[in-house]
Design goal:
heterodimer; A: mainly beta; Immunoglobulin-like; 7-stranded mixed sheet; 6-stranded antiparallel sheet; elongated; B: mainly beta; 2 helices
Chain lengths: 383, 215
């Protein structure tokens, strides 16, 4: 219980100061003859500098939990991440898969208080303790001038206290709450610098009264609860090659050769025919798009086999070739001995391959007309 | 209970993240699938080419890209068999009474696939567009499916001009013997009648339509 004991105290102005044990109030004296008195409201052991009271962080709507530790310390986490941006990130965290990695990010709020009337404050941020694996995790910052909901709004956060990144730029803001963003960029990272595991980082925010050029508050965010976790990731997609038959998304992908015949008459768009003993091969280019990250190997292998053969395997089977003119080789139907496509697939480098459909020209009892289906299973393995 | 919870938490931490067959985390392999579909249809193809019979001349069969699909030119001909034409000729047996025949061999190349039955297949031919004059007609061997070199002018007869009743130049036995991708040697020509007077043609073209039926 606190009371004002002298008539000279006209106001007890509540501030945002926190101590190890709880909030305090700072009273400013209005009578010039009397020294400043600090009143301890609850179990005060050691007061923090008044500057630290005027900058607070809190969870933004939709953002992740912002846990406040003693003093003006906070803990946050991006959770488990990967440089391909696969999977669902931690609640409140967004992920943007980029052409060279992935950015995990979220927004948070900063509240500036205690500024004198007419004064404005700016806020800066820097990485005060960087990740132990800076090639694998890069802190990024988004200022309050953008929505901070897109990867393009983020940039690499300074690691220098002397030249920090800006959250609230001059001319600054008065006593108010602003929204900013913070992120972690995970670049594609294969080879010697690949890393999987946990890591931690700390960033420090500083609010400065731009009218007096004095620090009015600091806050520290520990990214350690839980520790940031980097996982390796693999992805293999198929897509349509220029001039080829359409590869459509299905479970997982689908390709329709349309109407075919044993003479190669009238191939559909995207198909070319190549003569083959006993029939004809309809060929089309397609793209294999490998992506993998945080592997010590910089190359992977691609293979394929027919996990479901045509119902009329004597009439139809699938072939593979590196060129449109062939030669085509029958794709394996054995999972244990698949057809090898390449052993040097590189991250985010498409491989053009040619898929052939052999159509027999057989007549008589074994002839078949109608629709048939098969399934190819591609496998990418990164050692 | 506590030990179980710890084990469970550890299991979750080490488990592979599988989101779809196209991607995964905490793993080094991924296996997407591609579904392939195709509809196979029956197909037939009949092409013509120059003959190869030994001992005679062969008129060229030129692929025209259609229409016409092919052309054959017998050259300059006459009813007395004076001109040599481009290929072979039989002079009239009785000049001024019977026809002169200018002729050539040619090759039929039947190809067909995905046909359940082929035993009753045939190739027929008829004159779908005849010469404008009455003194010249398309002829074929009197035995329409003859594959040996005809001996004389009498071995030829006019080709049918009726689509409804064409000449069978390859019957089922011929087709079976040739099979898909085989060849059939046949003979065709023009018969020049020794007529005079109005309407006598001194030049022109005719069209023969071949039909292959696989059944």
């Amino acid at each position: 219980m606190v009371r004002a004991r002298h008539h000279e105290w006209t106001q007890l102005q509540p501030c945002s100061l926190r101590t190890k044990h709880g909030p305090a109030l700072v009273a400013w004296r209005v009578d010039s003859r009397i020294a400043l008195i600090v009143l301890i409201l609850t179990g005060l052991l050691a007061a923090q500098p008044a500057a630290a009271q005027r900058l607070r962080l809190r969870q933004a709507p939709g953002g992740p939990t912002v846990a406040q530790a003693p003093a003006n310390d906070y803990s946050m986490s991006f959770g488990t991440m990967n440089a391909l941006g696969l999977g669902t990130p931690l609640a409140g965290v967004s992920v943007a898969a980029l052409s060279n990695g992935a950015l995990y990010f979220f927004t948070y709020q900063l509240t500036i208080s205690g500024l004198a009337a007419g004064h404005k404050a700016g806020v800066t941020i820097y990485v005060s303790t960087n990740f132990s694996h800076p090639a694998a995790l890069v802190m990024e910052n988004c200022p309050d001038t953008t929505a901070c909901t897109a990867a393009s709004e983020y940039s690499v956060m300074s690691t220098s206290a002397g030249a920090p990144s800006v959250i609230v730029a001059p001319p600054g803001v008065g006593n108010s709450t602003v929204t900013a963003g913070i992120g972690v960029f995970l670049p594609d990272n294969d080879g010697a610098s690949a890393y999987t595991g946990t890591d931690t980082s700390t960033v420090t925010l500083t609010a400065t009264d731009l009218n007096t050029n004095t620090v009015i508050g600091t806050a520290v965010i520990f990214f350690n609860s839980p520790a940031e976790t980097v996982q390796d990731a693999v992805q293999l997609t198929l897509s349509t090659a220029t001039g080829g038959v359409t590869v459509s998304p299905a479970a997982d992908f689908a390709m329709n050769f349309g109407n075919v015949n044993g003479l190669g008459i009238g191939p559909a768009a995207g198909l070319t025919t190549v003569a083959s003993a006993g029939g004809v091969i309809y060929g089309t280019p397609y793209l294999l798009n490998p992506a993998f990250t945080d592997f010590t190997s910089t190359t992977g292998s691609l293979s394929v086999y027919a996990s479901k053969v045509f119902a009329h395997p004597a009439v139809l089977h699938l072939d593979d070739s590196a060129s449109s003119a062939g030669p085509y080789a029958t794709i394996s139907i054995t999972a244990g001995a698949p057809t090898q496509i390449t052993t040097v697939a590189h991250d985010r480098t498409s491989v053009t391959r040619y898929l052939g459909l052999f159509v027999s020209n057989v007549n008589g009892a074994t002839a078949f007309t109608g629709t048939d289906n098969a399934t190819l299973t591609f496998t990418m393995t990164v050692p | 209970m506590r030990r179980s919870l710890i084990f469970f938490a550890g299991f979750l931490a080490l488990s592979t993240g599988a989101f779809a067959a196209t991607q995964g985390t905490n793993t080094n392999t991924v296996s997407p699938t591609l579904a392939i579909s195709a509809t196979i249809q029956k197909a037939v193809q009949l092409t013509l080419s120059a003959g190869t019979t030994a001992g005679i001349s062969h008129c060229a069969v030129v692929a025209g890209g259609g229409p016409p699909d092919y052309t054959m030119n017998f050259g300059t001909v006459d009813a007395l068999g004076i001109n040599n034409g481009n290929c072979n000729k039989f002079a009239p047996t009785t000049p001024g009474t019977t026809n002169a025949i200018y002729w050539s061999d040619y090759t039929l190349n039947p190809v067909y696939t995905s046909q359940a039955t082929t035993s009753a297949s045939t190739i027929t031919a008829y004159v779908s567009a005849n010469f404008a004059g009455p003194n010249i007609n398309i002829v074929r061997t009197t035995v329409a499916d003859q594959s040996t070199v005809p001996a004389n002018a009498a071995a030829f007869s006019n080709m049918s001009t009726s689509a409804a009743s064409p000449d069978t130049i390859a019957n089922a036995a011929d087709m079976t013997a040739a099979g898909s991708g085989g060849t059939l040697n046949r003979f065709i020509g023009v018969g020049i009648a020794p007529t005079n007077g109005a309407g006598t043609l001194t030049g022109g073209t005719a069209t023969v339509t071949f039909t292959m039926t696989i059944q």
